[in-house]
Amino acid sequence: MNLGVSIPASETAAYLRTLPAIRERCGRVHDLAKKGKLDYFEYHPEKEDEVATFCIEIMKRDYGENFTSIHPHGRWRHLDAGIERVQPLIEKWATHPTNVPDQKEEARRMVDLFLVSVLLDAGAGNKWKYTESHSGQTFSRSEGLGVASVHMFESGLFSSDPQQPHRVDALGLERITPEKTAAAMQVSESNPMVGIEGRTSLLFNLSKALKSSPHFFGSDGRPGNIVDFLETESKVDGGTRTVPLAALWHALIEGLNPIWPSRLSLGGISLGDVWPCTSLKASIASPIEGDDLVPFHKLTGWLTYSLIEVLEKHLKWRVHGVEDMTGLPEYRNGGLLVDLGVLTLKPDALPKDPKSGLPHAVPSHPAIVEWRAMTVIELDRIADLIRSKLGLSPSQLTLAQVLEGATWKGGREIAKLKRPETGGPPIEIESDGTIF
Question: Using CB atoms within 10 A of its CB, is residue 384 exposed (0-12), middle (13-18) or buried (19+)?
């Protein structure tokens, strides 16, 4: 899309909600970085090799040379933190005395679980932990939120049907309160979680979204009914059902749009995880409305990766067009780039927290927008470097596998080395429970 050219705001808004727009707009910010024209960061491409080497060391430690065994990045890993939970759930359904689901209904239930779990997966802060009673294991951050969400799902917290607690539907979600969410997540004064109100609001808004899009979610307002929508958009080729990624993305970006907090809108359309970038605006001679906006759609991307795995692994469908997916612009992937020197904050670019001594900002701050945009493109570049060093093609080592086995894990591990007390990111983000 040519910036500076007069285009109806509604068309620009529609474009900013597409997958290609993420890479295109982030690429423009990256081009500015190469010219030293970012407002908040300096870019050091010579450090990318160090990041790739660091990631390969982690991959070889964890997988040997068997890189094909790396799972794709998705919520499934977190739900199975420490022990398997998803497969035992499926096996439990299969032994139900009166209501044994077929494979498609199993997939619907998995989508129900994965979708609410992803929406609950914004940063919980450095102090919160979740203790699983039957295993005795304690988890924090994404794994803690994932394990908690499994037990919330099993308890029927999201279902309106007492005969079928293992589902999510609009009526069940309407009953969610901050108090119920906090209790289910073991939140207390001594175990605080950031963004509990924001998380609850997302779930309540999800109920409205599910009811307003029966085309995607059925008359009973259930996330899992997206499986049936995708089946109508698919075709069978050589015995394999193929679903276009664009259909899945369209259902999620359109069907879930009402859940996001009211932030920016353009042409009367709420944009979601899309933000103005000051350095991009300054680079355009005659900018028009929307030219300075950079889309990320991180939670939608995280959800898409997670649901692709359900479709491909459980239903044995094939999702076509996954090359359009981007890396996720969140603090683990982005933190890896900062901690290993690919990106450095300019002096006094951000205020520092008096306790931690770390720079901090709200998610809407233009420094965070630059950081996230750079992360998207750098993940492509790091993935290419890793493949080059290992002699692998993109089909042999996908971006989803790089995210899972290298960059996300690498970001967490370098954070723990540099900040052992918290394991937090090098730039603190004041989370509201709806973005990261």
Answer: middle
Q: Tell me the pairing of strands 41-43 and 343-345.
A: antiparallel
Q: CB–CB of 172/210 below 8 Å?
A: no
pLDDT at 91: 96
Q: What pTM did the predictor assign? A: 0.93
Distance, CA of 132 to CA of 388 (rounded, Å) = 42
CA torsion sign for 416, 419, 425, 431 is positive
Length of the chain, in residues: 436
Number of Cβ atoms within 10 Å of the Cβ of 134: 7
Q: How far apart are CA 318 and CA 312, in angstroms?
A: 6
For 95, residues 6+ apart whose C-beta sits below 8 A from its C-beta are none
Query: Residue holding tokens 């603090």?
Result: 331
Contact 17, 246 (CB under 8 A): no
* Residues 147-186: tens digit of each pLDDT: 999 999 999 999 999 999 999 999 999 999 999 999 999 9
Round to whole Å and give the CA distance between 216 and 227: 9
Quickly count helices (H) and strands (E) in the chain. Answer: 19, 13
Q: What is the dihedral of CA 221, 223, 225, 229, to 10 degrees?
A: 110
